[in-house]
Amino acid sequence: DLVDIRLPIKRIWQPDVTLYNYADTRLEEKREVLATVYHNGTVFWKPMSIFKSTCQIDIRRFPYDSQKCSMKFGSWTYDSSKVNLRFYRDIQKFDLNSYVKSNEWSIVGNSASRNTEKYDCCPEIYVDLKFHIQLERRGGFYNYILILPCVLLSCLTCILFWLPPESPSKLVLGMNIFTSFFVLLLLLYKNMPSNAEHIPRIGAYYCLNMGMIATSTFLCTIVVHIYFRGAGPMPTILRRVFLEFLAPFFLYGTTYKYISTTCC
Predict the structure, then answer these.
(1) What is the pLDDT of residue 69?
(2) Mean pLDDT taken over the chain
(3) Residues 199 and 188 in one domain
C-alpha cells in the first residue's frame, strides 16, 4: 500500500507563515524542497532556511557581552480560526541536535512561547510563536588583540609619568603610546556594529588614556621649551597665570622683591 508520496510544495497550499522581525535583503527565505504527503492527509515539509532577524544588542561589556534575541513567527493574513500554530511535538525551544558550535558565540539558553495577539488593523486574533535565545560571546580571541595590549600600554603610561618632564624621550614615548591606543581603537571599531546604541567600556578606556597622554605631552612640551630656553625673565602671561591666578588654588604664596638701581 502507498503510505506517503513526495510532491513539489508549489502544488500544495501552504500558510503564509513568516518571520515578523525579518531583516534580510533577500526576497525568499526558504529553499525549494519536496513535501511529504501521508495517506491520512498530514503534510510534512521541512525546508532548508536561513533567517536573519533584527535584535537590539548591548555592547557595553564587549568583548565579554551576552545578547538576548527573539524570533517571532506567525501567519501574516490568516487569524487563529484559520491557521492555529502549535509547537512541533510540544518542544518549546530550539532543537539543537544538529547545531554546529560557533567559534565566537555560545548558546547559554533558549526558550519559546505561544502567544495570541489582537492588532489594531483587524478584529481577529492572531497566533504567533516566539523563540528566545541567549548568546554569550567567546572572548578568548579578543584577549590577545585588545585586552593584553591594553594592559601593557597602560603600564607604559604609568612609566611615562615617572620620566622627568624635561627629558625629550618622554615626548617620543608619549606619542608612541598614543598611536598604539589609536590602533587598538581602530581594531575595536572594525569588530563593532556601526549602528550600536552604546559604546563599549573598553573603548571609553582607550579614549581616556589617549586624553591623558595628549595632556601630558602638551604640558611636557611647555616644560621642555622653558628648560631649553635658558635663564631669563619669566613671560608676563605665564607670570600672571601661574603666580597670580593659580597660586591661591595651590596655597602657594609669592613674595616679590623689587630692586632699583640708579645709574650716575
Answers:
(1) 92
(2) 83
(3) yes
